[in-house]
UniProtKB/TrEMBL annotation, chain A:
Subcellular location: Chromosome, Centromere; Nucleus
Family: Belongs to the CENP-I/CTF3 family.
PANTHER family per record: CENTROMERE PROTEIN I (PTHR48208:SF2)
Organism: Scomber scombrus
Protein name: Centromere protein I
Pfam family, one: CENP-I
Chief localisation class: nucleus
TrEMBL record, chain B:
Source organism: Scomber scombrus
Domain of life: Eukaryota
One Pfam family per UniProt: CENP-N
Keywords, ordered alphabetically: Centromere, Chromosome, Nucleus
UniProt name for this protein: Centromere protein N
GO terms classed as biological process: CENP-A containing chromatin assembly; chromosome segregation
TrEMBL record, chain C:
Native source organism of the sequence: Scomber scombrus (Atlantic mackerel)
Primary location group: nucleus
Compartments, as annotated in UniProt: Chromosome, Centromere; Nucleus
GO CC annotation: chromosome, centromeric region; nucleus
Record's protein name: Centromere protein M
Length: 737, 345, 184
C-alpha cells in the first residue's frame, strides 16, 4: 500500500513540477520534489514496471508469465487513472511494436497508451519504422494508426514525422491501412510533400479502389496546394471522408484530461466545459475542445523549447513571442482551432505563405458545407449550440481579419438559395455583410436574386435586418476601396490574400449595382409595408452611407436615391425621417460641390453625369419649395399631378400643407411653439408663425429639438435675407451647367 | 482454468451491458455474498471481467455454470438474434401434448443418438416455454459453446422458434424434435424476425385480429381533433376511407414487430421480343424485400397515408393474416406483384 | 375534371383563404396552426393531399386566394404529386396566386437534380419558390409568416399591391449553377 501511495505522489510531483509556473518561489519546491522523486524512484513500482518493459528480452513468453501480468496491470492502472508520462509512452510503444513478446499483448498495450501530457514524436517515428519491418497483424496495424490519429494533437513536434512522409506514404498501398494512412497524411501534408509521383500513385489507387472518400479528401488537399498537379475534378458534395477513430481511447482520454485539467484549472479556458457533449461524428469539432489539451502540451515543451525547431502555434502566448517565432510556427492539425485564437489569426494575417490560409479555407468549406448546408439529419439539430458557436467564431475571425474567407463566401452563395430566412439569421446576415466585392456581372445571380425573393416574402424585421446587412456590406466595400486603391494605376486588389484584381470602373459598377438594387428593394419594400418607420430608418441609414461615398471614401461616384425613397421620406409622418432626409440632402450637396470643384481643378479626374445634378437639383428645389416656400412646384420631372385634380381634392391651400408648419411631422411642434409664443391667445392660428420674426424663432425652436439635419440643410441651402421669400434665393453652386 | 472457459466467460460478459450485469449475476446466484459485494459495478467493464475471471477460478466454475449464466441472459433478452419459426405438423394418432420431464428426457436422448458431441441444456421459462440451448460438436470435435443454438418451444403449441441454426444442424434438430414431441414433421413457417414475442404473438394470434368482411365495419366514433373551425380538410372523406381500409387489413391496435417481408417471385418471363428469356426452362426469379424497424406498422401507415393504394392488396394484408413474412409467388399465386409500391418508412 | 378557379366566387369581407397541398399531409397541419395565429384577418385554411378537390365541398369552399404546394424534397413522390396536381388549377391562379414551399432541401440524401427540377418547375410557371425548416418551431412560424406576407397581397389586403406584382418580384428564376463562383 505504501509503495502505491508513493507512486501516485511521485507522479503528482512530476506533474506539478512541469505543469505551469516558472516562478522563482516554485522552483525551490520543485527542487525538493525532484530530490524526493529520485529517492522514490528506486522503489517506485511503476518505474520498475517500465524498466521491466524496456529491458525484457525478446522471445520471453507472455502466457503464464506473472511478472508480465503484474507489470502490465500496474501500467494499465496508472494509464487509466492519470495517463502515462512521455517516457512511459515511448517505452511501452517500443515494447509493443517491436513484438518482443509476440503479437498478443500489443493490442492491450496500445489500448492503454493514454498520454498524460505529450507524446514524444521520436516514439511515433520509431513505431512507424517497426510497422514497416515487424510482423504485426493487420488489425493491430490499423489500431496503431488509429491511435496516432487520436493523439495527433498531443505529439510534441511533427518535423521528424514529416521527414518520413514518404515512408508513411508507402503504406498507402496496404488495403487495410489505406483509409487511416490517408487521414494521417492529410494531417501531415504540406506544400512540399505534394509530388507528381504521389499524385499519380493516389490516382492509381483510386482507379483500383473506386472513388473512395479518403482518397478524394487527400487528393483534394493536394489540389489545394498544387492545383497544377491534380487535374481531377473533385465533387462539390463529398461525404465526410475521415471518420472518428478515437473510440477505444476517447472516454478515458477525456477523463484523464479532465482530471489533469482540474489541477491546472487556472489556465483552462472555462469555455471548455460547454463543449463536453462530443457526438461521435464531430471529430472536426473536437479541436474546439483543445484548450485543455494544449495547455498540457505547453508545459511539456516549455521546459525545453530550444531543442525543437518548430513551435506549435498553441505554445505561443503573446504577440512578442509570435514575432520571434514567426518563421517556425507549426500549424495545428485541426485548422479550425485557429479561428478561436486571436494570435493565430494575427499569424494568418501577416504570414506570407498562403498554405495556412488555404488549409483553413479548405477545412472551413467542408465544415460549413456539412454542418449547415447539407446535413444528414435534415436540420433537426441545426440550432445546436455547437453550430452556432462555430459561426460566431467565424464571424469574429472575419471581424478580426477585416475580411472574409473565400470558402465562407462560396458557402453563403449556396446557402442563400435554400435559406428560409430565419435559420441562424443573425449569423447569416453577418456573413453576408462580410462578402467582398462581387463583380457586377455576377452580383445579380449570386446575391440579388435569392435576396430579392427573401426580402419581399419576409416580415418587416427581416427587411430591416437585410437592409442593415447590405449597408454594412457597402461600407466594407468602400473601406476596402479606400485602403487598397493604388493611386497610380486604378487597380485595386480587393483582398490581401486572394489575387482578385479589379479595375476602378469595375468596382464602381459593382457599387452602383448594389446601390440601385437597394434602391429597388427600398422603394417596393416601403410600398408593401406601408412606409414602416423602422424600415425607413434602416433605408435612410443606407443612404447616409451612399451620399458620402465621394468625400468619406474617395470613390468618385454619386448616386441619388430613387423617388420612391425620397418622396415618402419627405412626406413621412415622423419628423426623424424628414430630418434625416434633410441631412442626407445636405451631404449630397457637400459631396457634389466638392466633386465639382475638384473636376474643375484636375480637368479629367472624373465625370459626374448631368443627370445626377439634375436629379439632385430637382429634389432640392422641390424640398425647399415644399418646406420653406409653401409651394408645390414640380419642375416637369418626377411627380406630375394635375392642378385641377388637386383642386378637386378640396384641401384648402393644398400647396402649403407640407411646409414646416403644416407638415404632418412638424405640426405638433408648430402647435406647441404657438402655445409658448403666445400663451395668452385663445384662438390658434398657426399661420401666424409665418411672419418673419416668429418664423425665425420657430426655426430656432425646431433646431433646439435636435433636428440637426434640418438645421444643416436650411443653413446651407437658404439665405435668409428674404424671410419666407422666394425659393430662388437659394441658388446652388451645383446647379445644372 | 481452461483457456476456452475463460474465453467463454469473457465473451459473455462483453455481451452483457454493464447496467444489466449486476441483475443478471444476482439472478444467476453463483456468487457468494462477499464476492457480490466486492464487485464495484461502476468500474469499467474490463476490470469487472478481470474480477469475474478471478472469482471463476476461486469458485471453480465449469462450462456448465457459465452456460447457465448465458441462458439467463438470453432468456431475459431474447431480441438479440434472428429468430426463425417452425411448425410441427401431423401429430401422431394417439397424440397428446407431452409432459415437460418426458420431453426433456426424450429430446436429449434422441439428439444424443444423432450427434456424438452435443451439449444440451434446458430451462423452463415462466410462460410455459422450454428454452433449449444446444452447443454443437461433431464426431471429432467437442461442442462449441461459443456458437450455441437456442430453441424455444411451448409444449402446448405446435411451434418452435430457433435462432442461429446452420443448415447442417437443421435436420438433426428437426429429427430430435419430432421424436420428442410425437409429431411427424417439422416445416418452415416462413416467419422470422428479431423480436421473439412478436413472432410468437403472430403465430399464436395473440394480437388484435381483423376479419375481412365485405361490409364496411361501423367505425367507432373517433373524436377527430377538430382543432379549429377555420382549418378544413378537403379530402377528409378519402383519408377516413383509407384509414378504414388500412385498419381492415392490419387492424387498428398495436402490431407485432417484424423487421422485414420478403416476396420471391417465380414466374415465366413473358416478352415476345425477347426469345432467349421467354424460352428458358427455368422460371424467372425476382426477390423484393421490404425492411423497416416495424414493417407492419409501416405498411399500415403507407396504406392510410395513400402511398399504397387501397384496398390493400392481399399480398400485404396476408402477412398478419397468415403469420408469414416470406412469400413465394408463383404464376398462379395471388395477385400480380406490380400492385405493390415501395413503402418509404 | 373540375378546375379550381380563382375568380369563380366573390371574396368575403376581411377574409383570406389559403389552400395547402401536400401529398404527405405532415407539415400542413402544423403550418395551418401557425397560420391561424394571424389575427388581423379571418383566416381560412384548407388542407388537401392533392388536386382536384372533391366536388362535394364546392359549396362550402371559400374563394381561395393562394394555393401553396408543399414539396418534401426527400421524396420523389411528393414532387410528382405536386406536379400532377398543377393540372387542376385554372390558369388564373398562375398570375401570382400559386407558390411552392420546399422542405428538407438541406438534407444530405436529396439528389441535387431534384432541387433543380423543382426550381425549373417553379420558374416555368413564374411562381415563387420558398424554402422552409419544418423541424423547428421557429422554422414553422417563419414559414407561416412568409406565406401570410404573400397571402395578404394575394387577398388584396395590401393597398397598391397585387398578387401579380409581388410574384413578379419574387418568382423563381432558372436554376443558377453556382457550384463554384467562377471568378476565383
Amino acid at each position: 500500500m505504501a509503495a502505491k501511495l508513493n507512486a501516485s505522489e511521485s507522479l503528482d510531483c512530476s506533474d506539478s513540477s512541469s505543469s505551469n509556473d516558472q516562478s522563482v518561489s516554485n522552483r525551490s519546491s520543485n527542487r525538493v520534489a525532484e530530490k524526493e522523486r529520485r529517492k522514490n524512484e528506486a522503489e517506485d513500482p511503476f518505474v520498475l514496471a517500465l524498466k521491466y518493459f524496456s529491458d525484457v528480452e525478446a522471445g520471453t513468453p507472455h502466457q503464464g508469465n506473472d511478472d508480465f501480468e503484474n507489470n502490465l496491470a500496474l501500467v494499465e492502472k496508472v494509464a487509466y487513472s492519470r495517463g502515462l508520462p512521455p517516457e512511459a509512452i515511448s517505452i511501452m510503444l517500443e515494447f509493443a511494436m517491436s513484438l518482443r513478446m509476440g503479437t498478443s499483448p500489443v493490442v492491450r498495450v496500445l489500448k492503454c497508451l493514454i498520454p498524460a501530457s505529450v507524446v514524444p514524436q521520436d516514439a511515433i517515428v520509431r513505431a512507424v519504422v517497426w510497422l514497416g519491418i515487424s510482423k504485426i497483424t493487420a488489425g493491430t496495424q490499423v489500431l496503431f494508426i488509429k491511435w496516432v490519429l487520436t493523439i495527433f494533437d498531443m505529439i510534441d513536434a511533427k518535423d521528424q514525422l514529416r521527414a518520413v512522409y514518404g515512408f508513411i506514404f508507402s503504406f498507402v498501398t496496404d488495403e487495410n491501412l489505406c483509409p487511416f494512412i490517408c487521414h494521417l497524411l492529410y494531417l501531415l501534408t504540406r506544400k512540399e510533400s505534394v509530388r507528381v509521383f504521389r499524385v499519380r500513385k493516389l490516382l492509381d489507387l483510386q482507379s483500383k479502389l473506386g472513388r473512395q472518400p479518403f482518397l478524394l479528401h487527400l487528393l483534394s488537399l493536394y489540389k489545394v496546394f498544387c492545383p497544377e498537379l491534380v487535374t481531377l475534378s473533385i465533387p462539390s458534395r463529398m461525404r465526410s471522408g475521415f471518420r472518428n477513430h478515437n473510440s477505444p481511447w476517447k472516454s478515458t482520454l477525456i477523463i484523464v484530461q479532465k482530471r489533469n485539467g482540474s489541477q491546472l484549472a487556472s489556465i483552462v479556458n472555462p469555455a471548455v466545459t460547454l463543449k463536453d457533449k462530443t457526438s461521435s461524428r464531430k471529430r472536426k469539432h473536437w479541436h474546439l475542445e483543445i484548450p485543455a489539451l494544449s495547455s498540457a502540451v505547453n508545459k511539456g515543451a516549455q521546459t525545453e523549447p530550444s531543442r525543437r525547431k518548430v513551435v506549435p502555434l498553441v505554445q505561443i502566448q503573446s504577440f512578442a513571442q509570435l514575432l520571434e517565432n514567426m518563421h517556425r510556427v507549426e500549424l495545428p492539425a485541426q485548422m479550425g482551432s485557429l479561428l478561436g485564437s486571436s494570435l493565430a489569426l494575427q499569424y494568418l494575417d501577416c504570414v506570407q505563405d498562403e498554405s495556412a490560409l488555404l488549409r483553413l479555407n479548405f477545412w472551413l468549406g467542408y465544415a460549413l458545407h456539412e454542418e449547415f448546408l447539407f446535413c444528414s439529419d435534415g436540420g433537426a439539430s441545426q440550432n445546436s449550440e455547437e453550430a452556432l458557436q462555430l459561426l460566431d467564431k467565424l464571424l469574429s475571425a472575419h471581424h478580426f481579419l477585416q475580411e472574409g474567407f473565400s470558402s465562407s463566401e462560396a458557402f453563403l452563395y449556396k446557402f442563400l438559395n435554400v435559406w428560409d430566412g430565419s435559420l441562424l439569421r443573425p449569423q447569416i446576415l453577418g456573413l453576408l455583410s462580410n462578402i467582398p466585392v462581387v463583380p457586377s456581372s455576377q452580383i445579380g445571380q449570386l446575391l440579388f436574386e435569392p435576396l430579392m425573393q427573401l426580402f419581399f416574402t419576409s416580415s418587416p424585421f427581416f427587411k430591416c435586418g437585410l437592409m442593415e446587412s447590405l449597408n454594412n456590406m457597402l461600407r466594407k466595400w468602400l473601406t476596402w476601396h479606400s485602403v487598397y486603391a493604388l493611386e497610380d494605376d486604378l487597380d485595386i486588389s480587393l483582398n490581401s490574400h486572394t489575387s482578385i484584381n479589379m479595375t476602378l470602373s469595375g468596382f464602381k459598377d459593382s457599387v452602383m449595382e448594389l446601390v440601385h438594387f437597394v434602391g429597388r428593394l427600398a422603394t417596393i419594400g416601403l410600398q408593401l409595408e406601408g412606409c414602416h418607420s423602422l424600415l425607413f430608418n434602416f433605408i435612410l441609414d443606407f443612404y447616409e452611407t451612399v451620399c458620402d461615398m465621394f468625400l468619406k471614401y474617395g470613390l468618385p461616384l454619386i448616386v441619388m436615391p430613387p423617388t420612391g425613397v425620397f418622396y415618402p421620406a419627405l412626406f413621412a409622418t415622423d419628423p426623424v425621417s424628414v430630418d434625416r432626409l434633410a441631412y442626407i440632402m445636405y451631404r449630397y450637396k457637400v459631396n457634389l460641390t466638392s466633386a465639382k470643384s475638384q473636376e474643375k481643378l484636375t480637368e479629367q479626374a472624373f465625370h459626374i453625369s448631368r443627370q445626377t445634378f439634375r436629379e439632385f437639383n430637382n429634389y432640392l428645389v422641390f424640398m425647399v419649395n415644399c418646406l420653406w416656400n409653401s409651394k408645390m412646384i414640380h419642375l416637369g420631372t418626377d411627380i406630375q399631378l394635375g392642378e385641377e385634380l388637386l383642386l378637386k381634392s378640396n384641401v384648402p391651400q393644398y400647396w402649403a400643407s407640407f411646409d414646416l408648419i403644416h407638415h404632418p411631422a412638424f405640426m405638433n411642434y408648430a402647435v406647441d411653439f404657438h402655445r409658448r409664443c403666445w400663451p395668452g391667445r385663445k384662438d390658434m392660428d398657426i399661420n401666424s408663425i409665418k411672419h418673419s420674426k416668429p418664423w425665425g424663432w420657430y426655426l430656432e425652436y425646431l433646431f433646439t429639438q435636435g433636428y440637426d439635419g434640418l438645421k444643416l440643410f436650411i443653413q446651407s441651402n437658404i439665405s435668409r435675407q428674404l424671410p419666407a421669400g422666394d425659393g430662388q434665393g437659394d441658388k446652388l453652386s451645383t446647379d445644372e451647367r | 482454468m481452461g483457456d476456452s472457459l475463460k474465453r467463454l466467460l469473457q465473451r459473455l460478459i462483453r455481451r452483457i451491458p454493464t447496467q444489466m450485469l449486476k441483475l443478471t449475476l444476482e439472478k444467476w446466484g453463483r456468487l457468494t455474498k462477499a464476492q457480490q459485494q466486492s464487485m464495484d459495478f461502476t468500474q469499467p467493464k474490463w476490470v469487472l471481467t478481470e474480477r469475474l475471471l478471478g472469482i471463476c477460478e476461486e469458485n471453480e466454475w465449469t462450462v456448465k455454470h457459465i452456460t447457465e449464466l448465458e441462458m439467463i441472459y438470453v432468456m431475459d433478452n431474447p431480441n438479440q438474434g434472428m429468430w426463425n419459426a417452425f411448425q410441427l405438423i401431423d401429430p401422431e394418432d394417439d397424440f397428446q401434448s407431452v409432459e415437460l420431464m418426458k420431453f426433456k428426457e426424450q429430446f436429449k436422448y434422441h439428439l444424443g443418438e444423432l450427434v456424438k458431441h452435443v451439449s444440451v441444456k434446458m430451462k423452463k421459462h415462466t410462460d410455459e416455454a422450454v428454452w433449449i440451448r444446444i452447443a454443437w460438436g461433431d464426431s471429432f470435435s467437442r461442442p462449441n459453446h461459443l456458437k450455441p443454438t437456442y430453441v424455444v418451444h411451448q409444449l402446448q403449441a405446435p411451434y418452435v422458434y430457433v435462432t442461429s441454426l446452420t443448415l447442417k444442424q437443421k435436420p438433426l434438430l428437426s429429427q430430435a424434435l419430432i421424436l420428442a414431441t410425437r409429431y411427424q414433421a417439422l416445416k418452415d413457417a416462413n416467419l422470422s424476425g428479431r423480436n421473439l414475442t412478436a413472432i410468437r404473438d403472430l403465430l399464436m394470434r395473440q394480437y388484435q385480429q381483423v376479419f375481412p368482411t365485405r361490409y364496411p365495419s361501423p367505425l367507432a366514433e373517433k373524436n377527430e381533433t377538430v382543432s379549429n373551425t377555420h382549418i378544413e380538410r378537403e379530402q377528409a372523406m378519402f383519408a377516413a376511407n383509407r384509414h378504414r381500409m388500412s385498419c381492415e387489413a392490419f387492424g387498428d391496435g398495436t402490431l407485432p414487430q417484424l423487421q422485414s417481408v420478403v416476396y420471391k417471385l417465380e414466374t415465366k418471363f413473358r416478352d415476345h421480343t425477347n426469345k432467349t428469356m421467354s424460352e428458358r426452362e427455368e422460371p424467372f426469379r425476382c426477390v423484393v424485400k421490404f425492411a423497416s424497424t416495424n414493417i407492419l406498422e409501416s405498411l399500415r401507415h403507407c396504406a392510410s397515408s395513400g402511398i399504397v393504394s387501397t384496398p390493400v392488396t392481399p399480398l400485404l394484408s396476408s402477412i398478419p393474416l397468415k403469420g408469414k413474412n416470406y412469400f413465394v409467388i408463383t404464376d398462379n399465386g395471388p395477385g400480380p406483384s406490380s400492385q405493390k409500391r415501395q413503402p418509404q418508412s | 375534371m373540375s378546375l379550381l378557379k380563382p375568380f369563380s366566387k366573390l371574396p368575403t369581407l376581411n377574409t383570406a383563404s389559403i389552400l395547402l397541398v401536400e401529398s404527405e399531409e405532415q407539415f400542413q397541419q402544423s403550418l395551418a396552426d401557425a397560420l391561424l395565429e394571424e389575427t388581423a384577418v379571418t383566416m381560412n385554411v384548407r388542407l388537401a393531399k392533392s388536386l382536384p378537390l372533391p366536388k362535394e365541398n364546392e359549396e362550402s369552399r371559400p374563394r381561395i386566394d393562394l394555393v401553396v404546394f408543399i414539396i418534401n424534397l426527400t421524396s420523389e413522390l411528393s414532387f410528382q404529386s405536386a406536379e400532377a396536381s398543377l393540372k387542376h388549377l385554372d390558369s388564373g391562379y398562375f398570375l401570382g396566386k400559386v407558390c411552392f414551399l420546399v422542405i428538407n432541401a438541406r438534407n444530405a440524401s436529396v439528389p441535387i437534380e431534384r432541387l433543380d427540377a423543382v426550381r425549373r418547375l417553379a420558374a416555368s410557371l413564374h411562381c415563387p419558390l420558398l424554402f422552409a425548416e419544418d423541424q423547428t418551431p421557429d422554422g414553422v412560424t417563419n414559414a407561416a409568416e412568409r406565406l401570410l406576407t404573400i397571402l395578404k397581397v394575394a387577398a388584396g389586403r395590401v393597398p397598391m399591391a397585387t398578387a401579380l406584382y409581388l410574384s413578379n418580384l419574387t418568382r423563381c428564376t432558372v436554376p443558377p449553377d453556382i457550384d463554384q463562383p467562377s471568378f476565383d
